[in-house]
Every structure is written in structure tokens, then in C-alpha cells.
Amino acid sequence: MQKEYTVTVYTEDRIGITNRITVIFTRRGINITSLTTAETEIPGVYKFIITVLSEKSKLEKIVGQIERLIEIHRAFVHEEDEVVYQELALYKISTKALKNGNIEQLIRENNARILTITDEYFVLEKTGHQEELIALQAKLAPYGLIEYSKSGRVAIVKWSRRFHDHLKELEAQRPDNLKQARYTAHTEVSAEEESI
Amino acid sequence: MQQKDVLPMKPELAGKSAAAAVLPNISGSEAVIRSLIAEGVETIFGYPGGAIMPIYDALYDFQNEVHHILVRHEQGATHAAQGYARTSGKVGVVFATSGPGATNLVTGLADAYMDSTPMVCITGQVAAHLLGTDAFQETDVIGITMPITKWNIQVTRPEDIPGAIAKAFYIAGSGRPGPVLVDITRNAQVAKFDFEYKKCDYIRSYRPVPKLDTEAVKAAAELINNAQRPYIFCGHGVLLSGAEKELIALAEKAGIPIASTLLGLSAVPVDHPKYVGYLGMHGNYAPNIMTNECDVLIAVGMRFDDRITGDVTQYVKQAKVIHIEIDAAEINKIIKADVAVHADAKTALEALLELVKPQQHDAWIQQFREADKKEEEKVSKKELYPAEGGLKMAEVVRLISERTAGKAVLVTDVGQHQMIASRYYRFQDPNTNITSGGMGTMGFALPAAMGAKVGTPEKEVVAVIGDGCFQMTLQELGTIYQSEIGVKIVILNNNFLGMVRQWQQLFFDKRYSSTEMINPDFVQIAKGFFIPGRKVTDRADITAAVDEMISHNGAYLLEVVVEKEDNVFPMVPSGQPIANIRLE
């Protein structure tokens, strides 16, 4: 059954990594509904937060294929109750609306705040879940909403550990990486070659 | 240690001085060649052009160290590199220029990616300041090849060249092997820098060889020890991991029959008492139908391609599945594994071998032999030893197999002849089956055979090619002539795109839409490239002709005109359950 899922991907900082990730969704005909990315608490490691409407079994395979990419550390798929998340929206509204008494109540009830005011317009900010942000948009429409802009999802995974610990585990596995099969035996560097 | 005051040295000199770790002030192009030499590269397949000219110029000084084979089309270079990699066990290397040179690599990269073949392609690119300006012969090769390479990278500064090449070789050859592309802008090729090479053996986000989960191995052994009808599938991963001996030892110790996938062929000698045949749409009858009879399936280094499973909803439902696979993304992708052993095949099999109990399942194996009789009666006997009618592909393959004692490297193209050759060639030695499996790339065989021969010059290399396939890459006869590559080329000519015609006959009411071919004189074409050849149309001549070809020293082309409208059986119709396998 189709449901909204959050996919998180931990990556190295590398040109084109967004493309490499999104192309895997494209191949299976899955539309990405939002995408947020920023550096994590570890310098050089980025986190992608992707929301999609799909099925869990499909997404688990996609996550496997994402993890196969060389510059990806880990990728996960989360159900809605496994993440704490927030989105942010900005609303540009005609200043004339301020003269209407109801707008104050709307701002209060929705925990929105005013970022700036000019002669022509003012900008409201609200954080919350997508439904709440859209609901406020609908309520503002009669007041002359000029523009609306919403962010992707920012999420914290409830069961996540420090990613540092994961990286440490990777380092611990390092000797295994050196053990190779058929295709590396021949590329042993001799002392002579190494000196070139 | 840095030695800024010494002059750049040729490798034969450099080797003598162990301290010369840094070569000051050399060009990016020279660095490319020196990096390849440091990786042990001896052979490059390539084609020059504007954006890669500085690298070719640098190559000119290293002709004694690196052998460059000038192909006739960049696609040919990729397939040659694939053939070379699969026979020699080394990473195949390709050079191509920007734009059309780079786009011509696409088919070979996709093929190598599907069939896990290690390859490093180095492409020239327009100068960095021209990137994105639609400059002459500029193409976004990184964007184009992103989904068909294991990794790719664009280098715009000379100092990044050694690191990129080191990473490229490490990634291409480790874990599940695959193709890698390194795109180098012209300015990086010509600019000078202080060169130092360090092989790559670690990337923190990349874990090519997973840690063996001993609990999973124990669980697998437990299943095998309690099985009544265990069954092994041998995939390409067995060859890639060099685990042929371990696999055979497991089969012998625990009395388990082994079937092979198309790319797993040659891992187990076909006359081994535990070997039961070849799987898939046109594989053997017994191994296909017995998939739904076994109680424990041990799939090693294979990915349950749809050409093997048919309808997955009616596939191996009765059995517990043990999947030994190095690529985690393949586990549970198509068939749910009851026990997943995410590991290199050799490591996993070694561990498993210790834990399995000696057993024999002779009655179970006997069931395969009984089913074989049905196939022999209905298909193989008539195919291999026909008394009348036109020549059969199978009898030609049988003769080649007999005359080479099953020890040649058999390179096949794609279609009916591929399935027939894979069915009837009696493989004896590992890594002697070179074919395009996942992609089914027509035109693969001729260039792949060149690479296979260069990779194993001591072996006889026979390319079995259809008349359609041959005409896709026949320009490589020029390479074969120029570089004196002694491959034997057999064209099985039925004047049809045979496999498509077979489907049209069986599933499209014999509406032969665009499958009949009016062909040129193939022997004359070979003559034009100074390659001797012979055309055979009668059964009476075929034995002598095969003998003549095998005993000929150097390249030779044998055209065999075969029965026009023959079909390949057995056949599992596409998307149907394997139980629907047809013998006629």
C-alpha cells in the first residue's frame, strides 16, 4: 500500500551525489515529494532527507541500491512514527490584510510569526507538519496571499545513534577491505613499482 | 621522500632508485600513464581524438611498458577490455576521446556493469574553462554514465589524477567488480605537477568485502545438513571470487547437485559427477524443473535474473533459500532469502565447507539424470547428431568442443547461437565462457574475443557469432589484422535474426517483421582484412573445416550456413512459470 515514508541517506560531500541518489528513484518510477540536504554534525558527511509516496518493500530495495553507491555511508527508510520531523513555510500577504481584525487571531492560533513588513506586503513564518502549513495557506487565501513557499522535511530519527559511532565501526572493519578476490591479486605493487 | 632536484625518470630507471617517490614537474598526461603502470596495466584498448591527444602523446614514450591496441570503434574497446578482464583476471583499461568517443563507450559500460566486469575507462574532456559551454566534442559523460558505472569522476586539475586513478582501480576490482570512468579535462592533461602515486586500499564510505556473519553460515549449514534434496546454483560470483574449488568441494562433501547460470558456466567442468546443467530460459530441462523440487536451494553469487526465474510467484516456493552474495542490494531483491550470507563467495564457502556433514543424495541426483533423458530424446540428440537436413548450430558447437577438448575460451554473441553454444560446449576450465549475459549486447563477441585472446594468448579463443551480431561490430576485423590477434571466428549464419524470428514464430503468428537478413559474403569480407576463411554449407565438409580452422596459426573466419528456421529448445516462455518449459 502506498504511504508517505521518510528516507534518510548519509553521504560523502561530492559533486553529483544528489543526481546519483535521485536517479535510483527515477528508475523505479517513484516521485520524490520533498528533499532536504545539509551537512551533518560530522564535517564532510551530508544527510539527505527525502519524502516519497510508495511501498515499504519497494523502498527497502531502493535503499539497498542507494547504499551500493560508493560515496554513500548508509541509507534508511522510516515509517512516520519513527521520525520526529518538521517543515517550514513562508507566506507573503498583502499589507492591507493587516487592517482586518481576524488576521491577528489567525497568527496567534497558528503560532506563526511575522518576519518583515513593507508598505505592500508582510511575510509570515510557520513551522509544523505539512497538513498544518497547507491549512494555514488556505486560511490566508481570503486575505490576499501573494506567495507561499514551503521547505522539505527536516527529520530526526528516534532510534538513531551517533553517526560518529557508525564511522568508528567502519574504521574497525578496515582490515577486511584489504582482503580481495580475483581482481586484486595481480595489482600487488612491488617495491620497484611503488618507487616510481 | 621528495626529490625535487632529480629529473623525471622513465620507469626502467625509476625502479632502480627506491627513494624516488616523487617525480617533480611532469604533465598530467604522463601521470596518467605512470599511474596505469603502477597499477600493473600492460594493455590498453583505445581510440585517440582531440581531447585525449596529450595522453596519447605521453603514451608514445612508454610503448615498451604499455601495449596499446587501436580498435576500430570505441564500443569495440569496451568489449575487448571486458574479454581481457574476464580471461586475464586483470582490470580492463580503455582510452577514448570526449564527445562521440565517450558516448560510444555507453553500451560497453552498461554491459560491464550488468555483468560485474572490472574496467577503467579514461576519457579526454574539453578544457575545464569550456565545460558547460557546448564546446566542440563536449558531452556530459559523467551525467550520461552515472547510472551505468560503479563509479565515475571528472578530474580538472593534474594533481587529482593519481588519486582518481588509484580510486578507480580499487573500486573497479574490489567487491562486486564493475566499470569505472575517469574523465580528464584537457588542461589537467597538459599542466605540470609533482607526481606521486599511492595505491588506494580504503574508502570510508565503501565496504567492498563484508564481514562474514558466522551465525548465518551456521544457519546455512544446519539447513544443508537436514536437507533431503539440496541444490546449488553456481553464478558468476563463484568465478569472480575464485571459489570454484570450494564450491565443488562443498558439492562433493554434502552430495549436492550443481546447476550453473549463463555467466557461471565454466566454473564447474560439465562432466563433473555433481554437475547437472545450465539454468534459464534456454537452459537444460532438468536443472530448470528441479528448482521447484528441491528442499534447500543454495544460490551462490547470482542474482535471480528473470531469464532464470520466469514467473517469480511460482518459483522455488517449496524450498528454503540460502543466498550467498557479496552485493547486499541483490539479497531479497527478487527472491526472499531464508538465510542470507552477505559475503564473498570463497570466504563463505570455505566456512560452510567445515560445517556441513558428509552426505550423499544419489537418488535425488538420479532424478536429474532421469529428466535429462527426456531432453536428450526430444532435443539434444537431434541437435547434436542430425542425420539429414541443413547443418545444425549444435553440431558445429559439438565439433568445436571436441576439437578443442572443451578447453578453448568460448566467446559468444547474443541470440540463438549463444544459447546453443552455452548448452553444448563442454567447458572444462574456469573463466573460459565469455558472453554478454545481463545486457544481451549484440556485437559483443568479436571485440570481446580479441580482448580474451590478448588476456590469455596461450589459449585457443573461439568466437561463435550470429550473422546479425557479426555485422554490428565487424570493423574490429581491422584490429584483429593490425594487432595480429589469433582468434577463431565462427559465424553461424541462418540469414535471420534467429531468436527474434523464433519468438515471432511462437508468439507473433509467424509474422516475420524485419528479421530476415540478406547477407554479404562473410569470407570475402574477412579476405578484405587479410584474414583467411572458409564457407561451409554441407555436412560433409564441416569436420574438415573445423579442423582447418583450429589448426590454422592465426586469425581465421569460418562461416557455416545453418538451418534457416531452427528453434532453440527447451524454452521457458518469457514471464511464465518454469514448469511451462517447452521441449518442442
Automatic annotation (TrEMBL), chain A:
Keyword terms of this UniProt record: Amino-acid biosynthesis, Branched-chain amino acid biosynthesis, Transferase
Q: What is known about what this protein does?
A: Catalyzes the conversion of 2 pyruvate molecules into acetolactate in the first common step of the biosynthetic pathway of the branched-amino acids such as leucine, isoleucine, and valine.
- Copy the pathway line from the protein's UniProt record: Amino-acid biosynthesis; L-valine biosynthesis; L-valine from pyruvate: step 1/4; Amino-acid biosynthesis; L-isoleucine biosynthesis; L-isoleucine from 2-oxobutanoate: step 1/4
**GO biological processes:** isoleucine biosynthetic process; L-valine biosynthetic process
Q: Which organism is it from?
A: Chitinophaga tropicalis
Q: What class of enzyme is it?
A: transferase
Record's protein name: Acetolactate synthase small subunit
Q: Name the Gene3D superfamilies for this protein.
A: 3.30.70.260, ACT-like. Chain A, domain 2
Question: Gene encoding this chain?
Answer: ilvN
GO MF terms here are: acetolactate synthase activity; acetolactate synthase regulator activity
Q: How does it assemble?
A: Dimer of large and small chains.
PANTHER family for the chain: ACETOLACTATE SYNTHASE SMALL SUBUNIT, ACETOLACTATE SYNTHASE SMALL SUBUNIT 1, CHLOROPLASTIC
Question: Catalyzes what?
Answer: 2 pyruvate + H(+) = (2S)-2-acetolactate + CO2
Return the similarity comment.
Answer: Belongs to the acetolactate synthase small subunit family.
Q: Name one GO cellular component term.
A: cytosol
**Which residue intervals define the domain ACT in the entry?**
6-86
Name the Enzyme Commission number(s) assigned to this protein: 2.2.1.6
Q: Which Pfam families match?
A: ACT_AHAS_ss, ALS_ss_C
Q: Which InterPro entries match?
A: Acetalactate_synth_ssu, Acetolactate_synth/TF_NikR_C, Acetolactate_synth_ssu_C, ACT-like_dom_sf, ACT_dom, AHAS_ACT, AHAS_small-like_ACT
